[in-house]
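Hey, resending since the last one bounced:
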Amino acid sequence: MTDIPTALKILTPGAEWIVYGEEYSGIEWLDKTQTKPTEQEIEVKLAELQYQEEVNAYQEKRKLEYP
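The structure tokens again:
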């Protein structure tokens, strides 16, 4: 699933944060050691995750078509 919490977990493993809603402005950064990713960094990671989901879905479909 491609959402902000997933991107944050990948970009800043172990960081402490809360997300309210589905917008960057809804991120409350609680972590004292890691820096909050920029909105652009999160958007890039979300695009990468979405692309990977599409690739995986395509590969599964092709697997079923060609056993």
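The chain has a mean pLDDT of 94.

Sorry for the duplicate.
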